[in-house]
């Protein structure tokens, strides 16, 4: 079957494209912005990409058009698909019907940590020899790809692993299906990592998101398992609406807990107060330790011994764009991180501060998510950026004034609408031993390499 994917360079749709190709389908796609890392991954697979949504693409004669949620009514290609009565389907529904229907799905939901926790879980299952399939909104460095079918392509389909790990996003499915993506997945094991207000472009308030999370809870069978963050009152409220599945909580004494954290971030894993083992790894921050507890608990439900899960995490290599060191120039270390919500920004900076001590941290932020562009959370930014010594904000195409929002930070904050001026200002402030933390959920104009190049010749 030939499938043509509209919005193929999104993390979810790009992963779906990889899985569809592995399943033997011919895959092509288009997007308004074709850029790395997803475009690089797709092109390396031989998937043909088209820039834009022109109607000339119908000449390829696809059997079905898979529609990403970036596509709106009025998009020329979509309008012509509808006018001609051609078959189309959302990405989550296509995945559910063609890949997940007979799988033991392990879904990881939450405002933060979905990508990292999904990557940990997939790696634990892989390390245990269970060869899971996965679709993750990032590239786990243990795998080097964001998505694959269970098992290996050489295996007979009937002998493939039954396990599939998926990052379960609460964002809406498509313009014709306003339910959250995750309601399509019907997991047997579901992780509820945390829950805060986000996606202000589609949700009115936290209660609206909680309703979608409860829709997810309703889809988990009675012989399944819910792994929920016991520190999150917002998740307890979701479960109080009704729950038909056994629940294990993490982050609390009555469930999975961590203890004896040392300066390297190593920690003991406890289950109802009983020591299970010690995680020794390189990841930073309390948020990642909680992610690890969730992954260990979910893996245990799939049959992996806790001691084996703990051992696997010692070899976990994190995810690209999660505190990823992009390079060092003139003694200045440049990091790339996906943080774009105030809570994620704060936890990322706190983790880096623990790592570097009193060394200067220069935080570089591009408010690029739909929620951030709306300015819904601008008041929380000064507090989230408090750990940084200097703050640089790229404010092009925003509907609000970042200089005004960051005014509580005083002289340590500056905003720019021109990328080259922004880079020059960062380079002028950076000194040997500084750590430049770039935070964006997009390409940010290739700023990481431009910074390294500029630092190297100053």
TrEMBL record:
Question: What the protein does?
Answer: Reutilizes the intact tripeptide L-alanyl-gamma-D-glutamyl-meso-diaminopimelate by linking it to UDP-N-acetylmuramate.
- Recall the taxonomic lineage recorded for the source organism: Bacteria, Pseudomonadati, Pseudomonadota, Betaproteobacteria, Neisseriales
Q: What class of enzyme is it?
A: ligase
| Family matches, as Gene3D superfamilies | Mur ligase, C-terminal domain, Mur-like, catalytic domain, NAD(P)-binding Rossmann-like Domain
Cofactors (names) = Mg(2+)
The text of the family note is:
Belongs to the MurCDEF family. Mpl subfamily.
Q: Which reaction does it catalyse?
A: UDP-N-acetyl-alpha-D-muramate + L-alanyl-gamma-D-glutamyl-meso-2,6-diaminopimelate + ATP = UDP-N-acetyl-alpha-D-muramoyl-L-alanyl-gamma-D-glutamyl-meso-2,6-diaminopimelate + ADP + phosphate + H(+)
Ranges for domain Mur ligase C-terminal come to: 321-442
GO terms, biological process: cell division; cell wall organization; peptidoglycan biosynthetic process; peptidoglycan turnover; regulation of cell shape
- Spell out the protein name for this chain: UDP-N-acetylmuramate--L-alanyl-gamma-D-glutamyl-meso-2,6-diaminoheptandioate ligase
The organism of origin for this protein: Pseudogulbenkiania subflava DSM 22618
């Amino acid at each position: 079957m030939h499938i043509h994917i509209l919005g193929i360079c999104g993390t979810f749709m790009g992963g779906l494209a990889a899985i569809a190709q592995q399943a033997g389908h011919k895959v092509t796609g288009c997007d308004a912005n074709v850029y790395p890392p997803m475009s690089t991954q797709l092109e390396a697979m031989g998937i043909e990409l088209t820039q834009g949504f022109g109607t000339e693409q119908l000449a390829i004669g696809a059997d079905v058009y898979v529609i990403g949620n970036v596509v709106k009514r009025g998009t020329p290609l979509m309008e012509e698909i509808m006018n001609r009565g051609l078959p189309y389907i959302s990405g989550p529904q296509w995945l559910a019907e063609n890949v997940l229907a007979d799988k033991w799905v392990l879904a990881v939901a939450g405002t933060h940590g979905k990508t990292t926790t999904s990557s940990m879980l997939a790696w634990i299952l892989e390390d245990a020899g269970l060869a899971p399939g996965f679709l993750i909104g990032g590239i786990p460095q243990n795998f080097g790809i964001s998505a694959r079918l269970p098992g290996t392509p050489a295996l007979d389909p009937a002998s493939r692993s039954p396990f599939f790990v998926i990052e379960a996003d609460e964002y809406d499915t498509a313009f014709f299906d306003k339910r959250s993506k995750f309601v399509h997945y019907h997991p047997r094991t579901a992780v509820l990592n945390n829950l805060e207000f986000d996606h202000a472009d589609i949700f009115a308030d936290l209660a609206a998101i909680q309703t979608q999370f409860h829709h997810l809870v309703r889809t988990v069978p009675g012989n399944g398992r819910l792994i929920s963050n016991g520190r999150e009152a917002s998740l307890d409220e979701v479960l109080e609406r009704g729950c038909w599945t056994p629940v294990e909580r993490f982050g609390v004494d009555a469930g999975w807990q961590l203890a004896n954290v040392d300066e390297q971030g190593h920690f003991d894993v406890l289950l109802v107060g009983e020591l299970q083992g010690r995680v020794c790894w390189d990841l930073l921050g309390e948020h990642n330790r909680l992610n690890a507890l969730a992954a260990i608990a979910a893996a245990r439900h799939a049959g992996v011994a806790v001691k084996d899960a703990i051992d696997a995490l010692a070899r976990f290599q994190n995810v690209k764009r999660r505190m990823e060191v992009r390079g060092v120039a003139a003694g200045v270390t440049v990091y790339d991180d996906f943080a774009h919500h105030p809570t994620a920004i704060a936890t990322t900076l706190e983790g880096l501060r623990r790592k570097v001590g009193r060394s200067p941290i220069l935080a570089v932020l591009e408010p690029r998510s739909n929620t951030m562009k709306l300015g819904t959370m601008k008041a929380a930014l000064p507090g989230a950026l408090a750990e940084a010594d200097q703050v640089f904000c790229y404010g092009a195409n925003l509907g609000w004034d970042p200089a005004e929002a960051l005014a509580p930070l005083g002289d340590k904050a500056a905003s720019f609408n021109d990328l080259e001026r922004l880079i020059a200002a960062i380079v002028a402030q950076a000194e040997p031993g500084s750590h430049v933390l770039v935070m964006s959920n997009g390409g940010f104009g290739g700023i990481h390499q431009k910074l390294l190049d500029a630092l190297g010749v100053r």
